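Try this one yourself first.
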């Protein structure tokens, strides 16, 4: 009987701790500032997981959550449509959106992970320098604009569908993969304009006219296929409901887009 009481007490303690580590926010009619201040207060109080319901256009969610203590991170689950600059300057936290998101997701992101169960607007991953972003569906214009690498960080974006124009514009580092799961041809133009670092993998093909003059189109080698395989596995883990056949995807044609030079405008600006 004494042992049973101890077990009940431990069970209750676990439930209290679980509740103490979790919070819920109803964002109905909350301003951007109030929502972000509330999240910052929760992080400082030790909350590890927060559910945000009824999100409708609030911006910069996750931006004010910098913490010098690397262990002080949160899992943020968003129900609704967050506004621009979701996860801007994100530093180690994990964000999951059950729906679409607007422009600027992962702007200058440093570390952590963002998962979007829908589509994303323009300039996804702009100046991103670390962390991972997974998007189930399509993305807008100028994805990975000026994406870069910093020290040992190599940012990664995996997209289930396709993108619009200027994918990888002025890209300086990192990795982008378009899986083309909708089996539609990539219609984007000006891919890799000004690209001088990083790599883009596309399932399917593109015409040379769709790609910037700075970009070289080539097939995948064994190392590339290993990278793509790992990214497909990670994507499948984030979106299990898609029930993807990894082997079927890998057996289809992929191409690699890489810059021909690290200084594409050398002749234009050199004296």
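Now uncover the answer:
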């Amino acid at each position: 009987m004494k042992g049973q009481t101890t077990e009940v007490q431990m069970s209750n303690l676990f439930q209290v701790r679980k509740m103490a580590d979790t919070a819920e926010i109803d964002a109905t009619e909350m301003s951007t500032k109030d929502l972000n201040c509330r999240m910052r207060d929760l992080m400082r109080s030790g909350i590890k997981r927060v559910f945000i319901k009824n999100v409708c256009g609030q911006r910069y969610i996750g931006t004010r959550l910098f913490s010098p203590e690397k262990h002080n991170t949160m899992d943020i689950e968003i129900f609704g449509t967050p506004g621009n600059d979701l996860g801007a300057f994100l530093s180690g936290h994990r964000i999951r959106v059950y729906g679409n998101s607007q422009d600027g997701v992962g702007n200058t992101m440093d570390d952590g992970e963002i998962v979007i169960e829908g589509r994303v607007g323009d300039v996804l991953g702009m100046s991103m320098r670390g962390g991972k972003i997974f998007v189930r569906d399509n993305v807008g214009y100028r994805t990975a604009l000026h994406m870069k690498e910093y020290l040992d960080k190599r940012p990664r974006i995996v997209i289930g569908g396709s993108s619009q124009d200027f994918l990888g514009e002025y890209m300086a580092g990192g990795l982008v993969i378009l899986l083309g799961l909708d089996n539609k041809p990539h219609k984007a133009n000006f891919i890799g304009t000004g690209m001088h670092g990083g790599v883009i993998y596309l399932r399917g093909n593109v015409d040379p006219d769709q790609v910037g003059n700075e970009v070289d189109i080539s097939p995948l080698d064994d190392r590339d296929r290993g990278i793509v395989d790992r990214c497909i596995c990670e994507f499948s883990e984030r979106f299990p409901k898609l029930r993807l056949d990894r082997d079927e995807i890998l057996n289809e044609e992929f191409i690699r887009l890489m810059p021909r030079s690290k200084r594409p405008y050398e002749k234009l600006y050199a004296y």
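Discussion: The helical segments are 2-20, 32-44, 222-238, 246-250, 266-269. The chain has five helices and eleven strands.
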